[in-house]
Amino acid sequence: MANRTAYFVSDGTGITAEAFGNAILAQFDLNVRKVRLPFVDTVDKAHQAIRQINHSFELENNKPIVFTTLVNPDVQAIFAQNCKGMVMDMFGSFVRPLELELGAKSHHRIGRFTDISKSKEYSDRMEAINYTLAHDDGQSNTDLASADVILVGVSRSGKTPTSLYLAMQYSMKVANYPLIPEDFERQQLPPALLPLKKKLFGLTIDPERLSEIRNERRPGSRYASLQNCRMEVSEAESMMRRTGVSWLSTTTKSIEEISTTILHELMPERMAGR
Amino acid sequence: MANRTAYFVSDGTGITAEAFGNAILAQFDLNVRKVRLPFVDTVDKAHQAIRQINHSFELENNKPIVFTTLVNPDVQAIFAQNCKGMVMDMFGSFVRPLELELGAKSHHRIGRFTDISKSKEYSDRMEAINYTLAHDDGQSNTDLASADVILVGVSRSGKTPTSLYLAMQYSMKVANYPLIPEDFERQQLPPALLPLKKKLFGLTIDPERLSEIRNERRPGSRYASLQNCRMEVSEAESMMRRTGVSWLSTTTKSIEEISTTILHELMPERMAGR
């Protein structure tokens, strides 16, 4: 496999440049050393970044691949003129055609937070994170009616990371509730959830995988035994089927895929960008 | 302001398409209705997505702006031929030039999770999230030595959301510890942290902003009073200065900016992509 260095250069955090660059690089069989250079927002910092990139070029005798999201035209120009890497100018490539289509100039503003204190978006996000932490693992029934989604599923089916992801990325208030042997005996959802059926979404998981995960935490326990995992998963799935709760299996899904599927099914209106 | 509809179309979750598209759209003064269409991974789903997009075009008499991250060549071709929106083909635009530079073909694989059970990346991420939740707000001193970072700061300075973000996005084990009046009286960091000074990073915040945030939770309390916030922030800052702990002010920063700055300063090697 070929070896290359990839740089993600941004005048902001570089998170978008990195996510996008990684998605592109994943299309190739490459050994890539990856370096993110955030906050390159002055001419000086641009020259410094270019020195580092050009140094890689000299060492490796291969053009570094440089993904940039730069809005400052001076910084852009310095990259265009001096960078010996292969520059993938992500903003330039799309902003110019859009200016033509919209008949408007872009304003070259860096995607940076400036006035957090007045930002409703920011306080909604904080509230969502606090709510979600306080409602993790059935900890609290207080104010369940304010939840955007209530995740249910057996212990270790992926509820906590999914809840936190939805809160962090979509400012959603998420409660999550474990389905436990008592619920299976009663053959009913936890009583606090019955009036909120429309908000429920179930997570399930392959019993073999569940047993593996539980064995990492409590090796050799009844809780982790394959037999018990099979029973719990089967009971949980029939309960969700019976009560008409939508659900998905997390076995082969990333947190991002689980979260996207939940949004898509439960609240398609939230599939709009923030 | 002009009105448009923007679509983010992907054969995966569409998270990257949306993040990138939003960054581009933020360069314009536009009222944008945003729609994410994830999992468009078959010819049928491509035609369905295009029907929806072309319907917007007919209703609005303006080309919808369509950001795509599609790796399947059949699906790409259907978009190129039938979509009446302005298609910003994010993969096509960069993958082809890269194929030339690398002298290699891309393999058109969808960025999707397939074998979670064998993925070390996945289990590291879960472990980081569990660790971080268990070590939120000074809850536990167990295994503090395993932390990648320990955040310190006064109550409500942004430690919890930053910790969760670092765990979720970078699989970092993060502990966070409140600095409380007792610490200020002793004029020392919490004792459990003294041997771990190299892992510490401080968050501070403008006292006026802190008082606002605390007043939302406990209106009119001494805890939230501007006078008390001024005292706590000043004590915390002098303690960090005295003990040589790096720190930043969260007042005008997003969680992403705080996290990027911490990574950049404390563990630059982690600025590499996952």
Automatic annotation (TrEMBL), chains A, B:
<comment type="similarity">
    <text>Belongs to the pyruvate, phosphate/water dikinase regulatory protein family. PSRP subfamily.</text>
</comment>
<dbReference type="GO" id="GO:0004674">
    <property type="term" value="F:protein serine/threonine kinase activity"/>
</dbReference>
<keyword id="KW-0723">Serine/threonine-protein kinase</keyword>
<protein>
    <recommendedName>
        <fullName>Putative phosphoenolpyruvate synthase regulatory protein</fullName>
        <ecNumber>2.7.11.33</ecNumber>
        <ecNumber>2.7.4.28</ecNumber>
    </recommendedName>
</protein>
<dbReference type="InterPro" id="IPR026530">
    <property type="entry name" value="PSRP"/>
</dbReference>
<comment type="function">
    <text>Bifunctional serine/threonine kinase and phosphorylase involved in the regulation of the phosphoenolpyruvate synthase (PEPS) by catalyzing its phosphorylation/dephosphorylation.</text>
</comment>
<keyword id="KW-0808">Transferase</keyword>
<keyword id="KW-0547">Nucleotide-binding</keyword>
<keyword id="KW-0418">Kinase</keyword>
<dbReference type="GO" id="GO:0005524">
    <property type="term" value="F:ATP binding"/>
</dbReference>
<feature type="binding site">
    <location>
        <begin position="153"/>
        <end position="160"/>
    </location>
    <ligand>
        <name>ADP</name>
    </ligand>
</feature>
<dbReference type="GO" id="GO:0043531">
    <property type="term" value="F:ADP binding"/>
</dbReference>
<dbReference type="InterPro" id="IPR005177">
    <property type="entry name" value="Kinase-pyrophosphorylase"/>
</dbReference>
<dbReference type="Pfam" id="PF03618">
    <property type="entry name" value="Kinase-PPPase"/>
</dbReference>
<dbReference type="GO" id="GO:0016776">
    <property type="term" value="F:phosphotransferase activity, phosphate group as acceptor"/>
</dbReference>
